[in-house]
């Protein structure tokens, strides 16, 4: 469901980190273990926010 202007979702809203985690899951990668080294730190593509959205998976 979207707002009256069709601008933003109001129900089941997901964030970009969830989208990335779901795509990585579909490619067979664990988004919580996949890291890269940047500026002296190990970082994750999904930061600490991403969750796999299982409602969209068949």
TrEMBL record:
Top-level taxon: Bacteria
Q: Which Pfam families match?
A: DUF1501 (PF07394)
User: Mind telling me what this protein is named?
Assistant: DUF1501 domain-containing protein
Species in which this protein is naturally found: Novipirellula artificiosorum
- Specify the taxonomic lineage: Bacteria, Pseudomonadati, Planctomycetota, Planctomycetia, Pirellulales
